[in-house]
Amino acid sequence: MTTAIGVTRQLFKIRENPSKSDFIRVTDWRVEMMDHRKKSSGRSRGIGRRKLFFLSVTVLVAILAGCSADSKVEQPDTPVRIAWAAGAQLLVSDYQKQSVQFRDSQTLAVQRSLAIKGHPLAVGYAQGKVLVGNETTQCVEVYDSTSGVMLYTLGDGPGSIPLPNDLAIDEASGRVFVTDSSNKRVAVFSLDGPLLYSIMNRLLVQPISVVLDATAEHLYVGNLGLAPSTYGGNVLVFTSTGQFERSIAGDFTHPKGLTVDDAGHLYLVDAILGQVLVFDALVGQEIARLGIAPPYAGPHKMPFDSVFDGGSQRILVTDYLLGKIEAYAVTEATP
Amino acid sequence: MRIHTLLLAVSLGLVMLLAAPLPSDAQYHSASCNYCHRVKSETIGPQRAAVCLSCHGPGGSSTLRAAAHIQMDCLDCHRTHAGDENWLGGVNGKMLRNDVDKTGQHSDPQDYVSRYNILKIKAPPENYAPVVFTSRGTGAGEPSLHSFADRDEDGNGVYDGICEVCHLDVLSPNGEIPGTHHVGETCTKCHLHSNGFR
User: Fold this and answer.
1) Do residues B161 and B146 make contact, with C-beta atoms less than 8 angstroms apart?
2) Looking at CA atoms only, how far is residue B4 from chain A in angstroms?
3) Distance between CA atoms of residues B36 and B66, nearest Å
4) Of A131, A293, B32, B140, which is most buried by a Cβ count within 10 Å?
5) From the list A57, A121, A228, which residue is nearest B175 (CB)?
6) Terminal-to-terminal C-alpha distance of chain A
7) What is the helix (H) or strand (E) element at residue B129, kind and residue range?
């Protein structure tokens, strides 16, 4: 019975907080049980005890199985995109939890969530509406921010944008810029839904991130370029009407997220380097980096997107693998 | 008449040329060594999962979605350069490794060859388990032998399914050892890779 209680403790540990060490413990438990079988196999008096032992284990496992049916293992946070909403709130799309969270910009605590049918990627807010690029339905869905009811979709609806990775909103002109990664374009929609025009260019191979500057006149597009010359990716700069201006290259690989501050800096989140690169947006030159330079010892990380918090002079960065939002003071940027 | 025929042929040719499928970016990147190796020195360590997930994670160009299993990373189960023999002489599918470090210490790829040779004998070091994965199991319409967890169907005394090397008893609903939970079936039909096998 002592062994059975020990097993129960171990199984409870696994249900509550599964970790590798638990699996190793269970493996050890299996070895112990096999030893137990061997030891008791030659003893006639041990048969009753053995039956009792296995009966206990069976009952306990059945109870635990019943418990686990109700208490499903909690899905960890998997934040991907981040954007500003009204009232100093942040919008964060959670890919695996299939939700868009409203978070307090200071504490970063989740205040409420919007359930999404599918995996959300791009996220944005305008005129009381939440815009969500849904990877599953392959379109940008527009929700009422208060009721959470889906109102309409942009463009031709489901299937029209296979990978709606990121979006930027010019609320003044009512335009929404959506990276249509699979179709090598930035699709520009009216906030009301119709497609206005598309931005295409031979250099635009796989747009994965987009941001408008403070004046909404220039559009920065993070792009995975063609190998081998620019396989590391680049940032293409367009006018908001789609006129190509220039490209920004540098020592980065995967420009997953872009944001700008009010001092003319462009912040590029490189998902593979695990760092945020700070550029002089006008000149296109890297001037600093945020985050620990690889290689480093620590948990897996995959920074995804960022926003600039002007009030506290911070860059808030979502990390898909760390499962949290990290805050960097702009002054931390080291040349 | 000849001019019309010629024009029609040229038009059809142009249409066929334009409609011909071009290699996708995913294919292009997968064929480009530098896409991963440019950052190799920087990805030895925690960032190597991000290299895989840049295509197989959220918003990635690949149609195959994957998420890491608990605290593991992709290379604990996969090898990016598939093709080495497993200990039974076959080649594992889905770019799976031929062995798994059950301690989760993220085995050193440089040490792979020496460990592989050790695994040629039937008594691997305690922490390492050989993996044979040449079938996706009955759930995918394939044989149960050498699938995710076949409960030593070949009777060689080694539980070498990619799932059962760690989950030999955890997944046993009746407390049996080894477990009988959907033996030989396709584990990923319920425990989706895209969801971290939850």
Assistant:
1) yes
2) 34
3) 17
4) A131
5) A57
6) 63
7) strand B128-130
> What pTM does this model have?
0.76
Which candidate, B102, B89, B119, B138, places its Cα nearest to that of B150? Answer: B138
State ipTM.
Answer: 0.74
Residue pair A319/A304 in contact by the 8 Å Cβ criterion: yes
Lowest mean pLDDT among A70-84, B53-67, B76-90: A70-84
* pLDDT (0 to 100) of residue B39: 54
Cβ atoms of A278 and A260 closer than 8 Å = no
Q: Is B106 on the interface with A (CB under 8 A)?
A: no
Paired strand residues for A169: A176
Of A57, A163, A301, the CB nearest to B59: A163
Q: What single letter denotes the amino acid at residue A86? A: A
CA A18 – CA A26 distance, rounded (Å): 11
For residue B14, the model assigns a pLDDT of 59
Least confident of A33-37, A59-63, A242-246: A33-37
Do A120 and A94 contact (CB within 8 A), yes or no?
Answer: yes
Hey, what are A225's tokens? 């370029």
Dump pLDDT digits (tens) for A265-285: 999 999 988 889 999 999 999
Q: Among all chains, which residue has been given the structure tokens 């995967």?
A: A254
pLDDT of res. A121: 98
B111 pLDDT above the threshold of 80? no
Residues B59, B61, B64, B68, CA torsion sign? negative
CA atoms of A234 and A252, how far apart (whole Å): 8
Name which of A58-72, B38-52, B181-195 the model is least confident about: A58-72
- Closest in A58, A80, A119 to B174, CB measured: A58
What is the least distance, in Å, from the CA of B29 to any CA of chain A? 7
Q: How far apart are CA B92 and CA B150, in angstroms?
A: 15
CA distance A234 to chain B (A): 14
> What per-residue confidence (pLDDT) applies to A132?
98
Cross-chain residue pair A300–B50, CB shorter than 8 Å: yes
Integer Cα distance of B61 and B73 in angstroms:
20
Q: Name the nearest CA neighbour of A114 among A97, A128, A127, A126.
A: A97
Residue B178: asked if its preceding bond is cis (omega within 30°), the reply is: yes
State the pLDDT at residue A15. 37
Classify residue A174 by its DSSP letter. T
Q: What is the interface size between A and B, counted as CB pairs within 8 Å?
A: 138
Question: pLDDT digits over A106-137, tens only?
Answer: 999 999 999 999 999 999 999 999 999 999 99
Q: Rounded distance, CA A114 to CA A90, Å? A: 13
Closest chain A C-alpha to B179 CA, distance in angstroms = 11
Measured between CB atoms, which of A26, A61, A231 is closest to B32?
A231
